[in-house]
Write a structure and sequence with these properties.
It contains twelve helices and ten strands. It has 350 residues and is an alpha/beta fold. The protein has two domains: 254 residues, TIM Barrel (Alpha-Beta Barrel), CATH 3.20.20; 65 residues, Non-ribosomal Peptide Synthetase Peptidyl Carrier Protein, Chain A, CATH 1.10.1200.80. α2 crosses α3, α8 packs across α9 and α10 packs across α12. The chain is globular. Belongs to the dus family.
Length: 350
Amino acid sequence: MATTTIPTSARDTELPRPLAKPFYIGPLLVDPPILQAPMAGFTNYAFRQIVREFGGAGLLATEMVNARGFVWMDEHEAEHPDRLWGVAAEPRPLAVQIWDNEPETLAKVGARLATEYQVSVVDINFGCPVRQVTQKAHSGSYLLRFPDRMGEIIERVVKACAPTPVTAKIRLGCSRDRINAIDVAQVVEGAGAAALTVHGRTAADMFSGEADWDLISAIKPHLKRIPLIGNGDLDSAAKVVAAFERYDVDGVMIARAALNKPWLYAQAAAAVRGEPIPADPTLAEQRELMIHHFELVRERFGDEKASVLMRKYACCYAQGRPGARDFRKHVATIKSPAAFYAVVENYFPV
């Protein structure tokens, strides 16, 4: 199957003025029309706070929350999942993504998020391709083969969360020979969802190959009322502008590229407004940003756990920088704040 990818030839500083406009998810205005993707293990409160400080994301999202685990913790009077760290008090708008395959469980958790946490959007994950979610839990992208089940889930969650809007995130299908995104999109809309996000790969693709934006765009004529958000391979302001110019989408969602460039949302937002694009922070500023990230994690988890957690975040910051391999080798062993600061001082480029 031919795949159309977003060109990288245009220089960010020479981007034409685009036509991207804010859009609504139910009553919520998403402005700018650029969303921060939920990413398990990464988009916690610390990451969201850093993105918020740079600006540019019209809607931020948590990591995906296991609905069944949330219910178990609730019933056993345990602390709610770490993936809800900061949600109750942080600024809005904010989406929380949940996953499971039981309509009742998802509806129960959605209702709690809408009422107790007062989140802006409840998003249902039908796109995660990892084995633990699909094969072991029969959730995420596994459910793409059962659109009727997806419709039942969405209807129950929409009813439980009202008036908080409910959205869905999907992939193109289970595999390249089983692409059913248009049929699934119509089910999602018919069940009452307020928006649809489509990642331009199939579940079988995982994260390999290139996202097919032609197939994402082909969904739009089949939606009557809800916005379509495209996701996949957006790693520069130029690509974001190209997505809006070339494809029939209302919004875009930036994911993995922002893990080592959390300022990308601000750059993309400036580009879609036709404004000068902010320069990347200097390496010295990026080092200070990484330390700021560590302090946010440390406040929540304490010295030892934060040091271990920071290993993967620090590796993201180093990606593509001079000496990244040597830095990753040393940061992978840190067990204390002192060790972290020493590795940053000695091995992170400036």
